[in-house]
Amino acid sequence: MSDDLKKGLEGVLVAESELSYIDGDEGRLVYRGYEIGDLAERASFEEALYLLWHGELPTASELSTFEEGLAASRTIDEDVLETVRRLAEADANPMAALRTATSMLSAYDEEDGEPGTREEDLAKGRRITAKMPTIVAAFKRMRDGDDPVAPREDLDHAANFLYMLNGEVPDDKLAEIFDMALVIHADHGINASTFAAMVTASTMSDIYSAVTSAIGTLKGGLHGGANQNVMAMLKEIDESELSVVEWTRNALEDGKRIPGFGHRVYDVKDPRAAILGDQSRALGNASGELKWFSYSQVIEEFMDKETGIAPNVDFYSASTYYQMGIPIDLFTPIFALSRVGGWIAHVLEYQADNRLIRPRSRYVGPTDQAFVPIDQRE
Ligand SMILES: CC(=O)SCCNC(=O)CCNC(=O)[C@H](O)C(C)(C)COP(=O)(O)OP(=O)(O)OC[C@H]1O[C@@H](n2cnc3c(N)ncnc32)[C@H](O)[C@@H]1OP(=O)(O)O
Ligand SMILES: O=C([O-])CC(=O)C(=O)O
């Protein structure tokens, strides 16, 4: 047993996986052999999910059966909707609301929430993936005092979410950008939330518990929560008297971390940031308001010059979603709507050859303490 301490499990290999490959030196991300740029441009989210869950790209008829299955599972039980309403009335954090409501779905699963065969768990994973957008959209609408909008089976996953959010069918361009964002967020090796899902599943717990653990883990600012923090920063810069460079320099001098920069695996720019940067620029050009993209670009150039630290996926998703009119506190829930595909794929892959995940800590506390009865303690 090695006594080397690997804080944050940095660089520790814990599993073999066929799902996604990351080259942190080259800035490359691949799902099951397919470059992320090709998938972003040419595959729908449903195709990416099929690829992750079934091992290969679907044929046209496999895809349409798969799409129909997902679309038919979008409705959530009235009791869950009522809980979402209460969470919205309590002005809950949207990630907390998503975590609670997703967990609650298990009680209403047609097969119960307990672990089953791979096929049963995959079907549950499909139902969770289909229902999470309904939860997020209903939460947002009820928080705003609007009625929830029922899902439509004739729209794809991306367009249906925007429809449920805004109450109108999105234009094709927006639906396409959103679909692409879902594709590129779907998987990323053993990131923290995926690992959390795997730890939970490794105890032979159920897939609802694994996804609930993962949602809670994605929420943090060092992980998925960074996309919201990026937009908060851009808005703070916009409202400050300082230039973008002055603001960023001050933040670094104050020892702050700039959200949307740095990565445990990439030493260069995250390929997803490049893809989303193009979308952010295109949205700015289309609206005639380029400031969010321009601020981001200035920060990227400054960070490169001063620190050599490059943007990660959360940096340009922020201005992309913002320019699509999506509320800032829904950015991380939207990340979850996509990453649930990766969580499920990794859980199923890991459980096929399961081993309880249980690392060690080095004990550095006292030993040999003599027990003092409570009436003699000072
Ligand atoms: C989807 C995702 O989860 S992508 C990541 C989203 N998170 C963020 O964007 C939050 C900001 N980024 C960070 O906090 C980090 O880069 C992390 C947590 C993502 C990765 O952290 P680690 O792999 O642990 O890198 P580590 O903390 O060792 O950083 C290495 C050095 O770069 C610096 N650094 C890393 N990220 C940043 C940043 N965003 N801003 C300023 N400095 C940074 C650290 O201060 C450290 O400097 P030091 O060696 O002088 O102390
Ligand atoms: O891989 C990571 O550590 C974080 C990340 O970029 C992701 O989860 O998409």
TrEMBL record:
Catalysed reactions listed for this entry: oxaloacetate + acetyl-CoA + H2O = citrate + CoA + H(+)
Pathway: Carbohydrate metabolism; tricarboxylic acid cycle
GO BP annotation list: carbohydrate metabolic process; tricarboxylic acid cycle
Pfam families: Citrate_synt (PF00285)
Protein EC: 2.3.3.16
Annotated InterPro entries: 2-MeCitrate/Citrate_synth_II, Cit_synth_Halo_CitZ, Citrate_synth-like_lrg_a-sub, Citrate_synth-like_sm_a-sub, Citrate_synthase, Citrate_synthase_bac-typ, Citrate_synthase_sf
KW Transferase (keyword) present: yes
GO molecular-function term, one example from the UniProt record: citrate synthase activity
Cellular component annotations (GO), alphabetically ordered: cytosol
Active site, renumbered: H263, D314
Family: Belongs to the citrate synthase family.
The name this protein goes by in its record: Citrate synthase
Species this chain originates from: Halapricum desulfuricans
